[in-house]
Amino acid sequence: MDDDGVLLINEQRRLANDVSLKINNLAAAPASVVRQVLEDCNGYFSRRPYWRWFDQLTPTLAACGAAYRDGSACHLDLVQWATDPTWGNLRPGSLRKRLVEEDAEFLAQQLRQPNIRLLLVNGRGAIRQLRRSPSIDITLDECKRINESAVQPTVLFSGLVFNRVRVVGWTTNLQSSFGVTDELRRSLLPTAVARLI
């Protein structure tokens, strides 16, 4: 949707939606419609991505030798559905918990894919949810504190998912945390992440 909550359609849309798919019930959709949803998700960064959000991670991805723009990085979500209101304002908390639990096995399937070699976890909430998930075998150890955030230190974690995929996480959500400075986004965190991988 745009900033006014109006559904993006035609060339403005970012992903498949009810209008583009010409359906109103995905659960009963034919295989061709499901295939279109997957194609739109897989091609998200070549279509019309929300760069104002995703470019906040560009320096960190670059430090890892990856980028959304060339397809060497992908974005995975704890929950596969956009929410309105946004995640942080979604109430009650039990609803957020249920959505995470329902989608945990799908995320686990994605993380088991052989082409996933490094997982970057952006924010305290995402770290907490991954650690709580019974579907995801993850080890994360605190390894460093960066004291440049105006609100509180950023804590870096390092570990493994399914004893195979390297994980680096940090507690400050670079895209939406209050007090995140451009300095933290551009230099300190990417440098620290690069040292951990």
Low-confidence stretches: none
Distance between the termini: 36 Å
- Order of H and E elements: HHHHHHEHEEEH
Q: Tally the beta strands.
A: 4
List the defining traits of the structure above.
single chain; 197 residues; alpha+beta; four-stranded mixed beta sheet; 8 helices; 14% strand; globular
What do these coordinates show?
- The protein is an alpha+beta fold and 197 residues long.
- The protein has helices at 18-21, 31-42, 44-47, 51-54, 58-63, 93-111, 124-132, 182-196, and strands at residues 118-122, 138-146, 154-161, 165-170.
- A four-stranded mixed sheet has the order 1-4-3-2, with helices on both faces.
Quick structural gist:
The protein has 197 residues and is an alpha+beta fold. It has helices spanning 18-21, 31-42, 44-47, 51-54, 58-63, 93-111, 124-132, 182-196; strands spanning 118-122, 138-146, 154-161, 165-170.
